[in-house]
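The data are quoted verbatim here:
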Amino acid sequence: MRETFALVRKTPGCLLLLFGNFAITFGSNLVLPYLAVYLTVEQGISPWAVGAAFTAKLWAQQGLMVFGGSLADRIGTVPTMCLGLLMRALSYLLVVTAVSDAGAVLACGLLGLGSALYIPAGKAALSRLIEGRAATTAIFALRSTANNAGTALGPLAGGLLLLLSTPSIGFLAASALFLALLVPFWQLRHRIPHTPARPAEDTPGTPASAKPGMLQILRTCPRMIWIIATAVVFGFCYVQVEYAMPLTAAAEQGQAFVGVLYTVNAVAVVVLQLVLSARLGRLTNAAAVIAAGLGTMALGFGLFGQGSITFLLLGVLLFTIGEVVIDPRLDSEVAHAVPAEQRATAFGMVGLGMALGGTLANTAASSAIGPAQLGGRYWLLLLAAAAVLALVTWAAAPRRRAATAAAAEREAVAGG
């Protein structure tokens, strides 16, 4: 880990991106835990409209992430990041002024769109700064650490602001923070090169199949098919922390315990990333690492179904270990598999895969086989499902060595 920190310090712009991620998640979590309450109690928005607003936020963020990545590949990562920051800042100002159902939906949709623009562009910008470095996985682990540090501290600061001032002050503070980040982020455009993916017609003799975009990425980088499928599986497991886990924790130990689980998850991510990231970065078999992470999450699900405080906490810790193992590894796989000029689009495709997996999980959790109906049996079913998906993910992974050997053989034939 010491070598990773040294690399961050020596790479101009890298520390700013990592600090920016912390600041953005910190600013977001100043208000996100209290957003639904603010809209309904303070602004008088109807509950059904708040539900629609949160749905708009989810699909704007996850569903439009591919659009955000494609835009970053066309106009540059830094301009797209700054546009995302500006939309986030405006969305919080709209929340404060929203006095109608339509205004709430628009504000939350704009918030989701800001995330859809920023996230793939930010990952692509970071990967360009560390292009070709062996510590790619460790750097993305630090990014995840910065995110979760903001996630852990933001709600505490937001709660303090609620005690000291009016409810709207948190939204205004978050908006001001995002606007303040625009200036240093905009300066990064001189450090991060932009090579736009040119359409086929711009290059004589290039076949139409070489047009930039999602289909071209899948054709030229077949490993992306496995990466996206793995993202669907990871999204299916990860989203349990947003819906099924709080539902079970509240039913077993009361609503206040849900906040404890979230804090444990966020703090554990920060600590485990610092402890494990360097060691995990040395492991070259990505399929085995990801499968092990999914297996660890499966064990956490099994413990979570027992209901006691001890098993709930142990279950969340195992779940967090899996999250720490998988999340940066997926980002690193994209950085290694996809050319720099198409990487933001690829990160967006991964986000879309996670959204699909999360949708499947939430549908199951809210149905007749969900935790509210089955109780502990739901988590046993999830344990079995996650274990099977871990094995399938490992078995279905393309073997990088074979692909490398084939490429070398083609080059030898061409040269001969």
The mean pLDDT is 81. The longest helix spans residues 101-129.
